Amino acid sequence: MTSVALPLIIQGGMGIAVSNWKLARAVAVAGQLGVVSGTALDSVFVRRLQDGDPTGCIRRALASFPKPEVAAEILKKYFKPEGRAPNEPYLSLPMYKQAVSKFREQVTIAANYVEVWLAKEGHSGKVGINLLTKVQMPTLPSLYGAMLAGVDVVLMGAGIPREIPGALDALAIQAPAVIKLDVDGQPADQPLSLTFDPAEHEMTHVPLQRPAFYAIVSAHTLATNLSRKATGKVDGFVVEAPTAGGHNAPPRGALKLSERGEPVYGERDLVDFGVMRELGVPFYLAGSYGTPAGLREALAVGAAGIQVGTAFAYSDESGFMPEIKKQVLTDVVAGRAGVFTDPRASPTGFPFKVLEGVSITQQDDSRQRVCDLGYLRTGAIRDDGKLVYRCSAAPERDYINSGGTMEDTVGRRCLCNGLMSAIGLGQSRKDGSLEPPIVTSGDGVKELMAVSQGRTSYTAADVLRYLLGDLAPAMARDMAPGYPALV
């Protein structure tokens, strides 16, 4: 991406398949950067197949997969032409570990390929993929699958993605890629790693291009560090304020909570835009910048534009269940919409925003703990020296047996299952219950009235028209020649 081709709007890569291929495609067709969420995309992929792939889109994309026999094996194992029977549980994928089977990696490759391929189908717009640095173990096969489909930009936050630029450089030439595996208790001088070798999957005949890499950061100091110490080129940054949805960076310094129990951010958490400008690469502002005024403010401080999540999250094209979107927009009109920044909900230890009303709240402990997706599991060395994988939202006994403490389990939520339920792919349990949803949203949900105009339905194009308004023609002419007009 060059200075004359930068979009003004980056659509946020939200949740598990909230930013799905339909949303990313709609934004990309309109000339901005559409983004798919890569989080847990392999589980989303196989569950869509088990629900019958009613539109045939997944099978259409798989028909172009560079290794047809892998596509055929995936369909044989997971595709149910008639869909699942009522209350029939989904067949789950094996949870990720440091090393998994060749086929397990290939499902991840195919899932990311399909999502990006569908988002890019039939137009020349730009499409990115958003991955979480904290979700380490599927990262390399996810990147490879997205690159096979021609992804234009990779965006990563929720951690320090220092090794990702170098991994992209390696994958672009079909060479093995290696990143460090964070393991609690592992001696610093004996690091463990995650390795991915494209040659093992026999698709090295496909020519690949290295996508641009944008790091999502909360501080100018982190941006400076990545610019200097990343293993390859960082092409840009998204500077995310703590009002953004999903995971937020914790406040700098000692944790202080408000009367509501939310983390308190202060002056140390403010970003120095002068430092960002001096880094010499494009940067975007995110978190409560999703308004026309926010766009103007971002441009005034030298940003290339804004990243917008919440407004797109409730558009017709997003992956949230229609009833959730309708309820949230109804609550917005009635003035009932609220967001709680929960310092305990996420097993990652990062503050996590939870929409109040339609989701599990901090006080709701009714769900029986089950850990069967495992994307937020992390490695740890147990007292006996064994490498184990644990999540503080898993059953307490399992977490304690893996070396964790009971204290660390308090208030934790299973984000994997809850976010999957929010997009209509919740697991059916043996007792007939369905996993309850968790809905994450930025603080901007309270301001959706400006986008929805009191309606309970709107499109991604409506969001772009709202954000750009009368600025679109002038900005297209002055900042990005060739920028297509909104239709």
Verbal overview:
- Helix 2 (41-50) packs across helix 5 (102-120) and helix 6 (139-148) crosses helix 7 (164-172).
- The longest helix is centred in the first third of the chain and has 19 residues, at 102-120.
- By secondary structure, the protein is of the alpha/beta class.
- It has 17 helices and 15 strands.
- The two termini are 23 Å apart.
- The chain has a domain at 9-321 and 453-479: TIM Barrel (Alpha-Beta Barrel).
- Based on DSSP secondary structure assignment, what is the total number of beta strands? 15
As a percent range, the share of helical residues equals 25-40%
The helix-and-strand class reads alpha/beta
| CATH topology title of the domain at 9-321 and 453-479 | TIM Barrel
**Strand order within the widest beta sheet:** 1-11-10-9-8-4-3-2
In DSSP terms (H or I, runs of 4 or more residues), the helix count works out at 17
**How much strand?**
5-15%
Per the principal axes of the C-alpha atoms, what is the gross shape? globular
Tell me, rounded to a whole number, the average pLDDT.
Answer: 90
**Main β-sheet description:** 8 strands, parallel
Could you list the spans in which at least 5 consecutive residues all have pLDDT below 50?
Answer: 474-487
CATH class of the domain at 9-321 and 453-479: Alpha Beta
CATH architecture of the domain at 9-321 and 453-479: Alpha-Beta Barrel
